[in-house]
Design a protein that fits this description.
Layout: H1 20-29, E1 43-49, E2 57-65, E3 68-73, E4 82-89, E5 92-105, H2 109-114, E6 117-123
Antiparallel strand pairs: 1-2, 1-4, 2-3, 3-6, 4-5, 5-6
C-alpha cells in the first residue's frame, strides 16, 4: 500500500487575512474580553510588594497554573514589580516570589463596583 501526500495549493498553515469573512469575524471579536477566573477556587492570600516589603496586603488568588497566577486586589500593582505571595496551608504558610507581568482594572460589573484590579504574575 502506498500513501501519497496531497499537493493541493492550499496549505493547512496559510491564512488569507484579506478574506471578507475572516475580516468580519475579527471585527466582531476585537472587543471581547476573556476572563478565566471562574474555573479556580479563590483563595485569600497576602501579597508583599517589592523585595524589602515587610507588611502584606490582602489579595485573592483566583487562578494558577505552572509558573503563572492571577491575583485580585483592591489596589493597583505596577507591571514589573516584584512580589511575594503568602498563602495559608494546613501546616503553615507557603510563599512564592514573582513579577507582575500585567495589571488592569477588572472588567466585570462586580469588579468595577468593588474597585478590583486583576494582576498576572510570573512565578519564579
Amino acid at each position: 500500500m502506498t500513501f501519497h501526500k496531497s499537493h493541493s495549493k492550499w496549505s493547512a498553515n496559510r491564512v488569507d487575512w484579506s478574506d471578507p469573512d475572516l475580516e468580519a469575524l475579527l471585527r466582531r471579536s476585537e472587543n471581547w474580553k476573556l476572563d478565566n477566573r471562574g474555573a479556580f477556587s479563590p483563595q485569600d492570600v497576602q501579597v508583599h510588594i517589592g523585595w524589602g516589603a515587610s507588611g502584606g496586603r490582602h489579595a485573592v488568588l483566583v487562578w494558577e497554573r505552572d509558573q503563572a497566577l492571577v491575583l485580585e486586589t483592591n489596589f493597583p500593582i505596577p507591571a514589573n514589580e516584584h512580589v511575594r505571595i503568602d498563602r495559608p496551608t494546613p501546616t503553615g504558610v507557603r510563599s512564592v516570589w514573582g513579577t507582575v507581568v500585567e495589571g488592569r482594572e477588572g472588567y466585570r460589573e462586580e469588579d468595577k463596583a468593588k474597585g478590583i484590579h486583576v494582576h498576572w504574575v510570573h512565578v519564579r
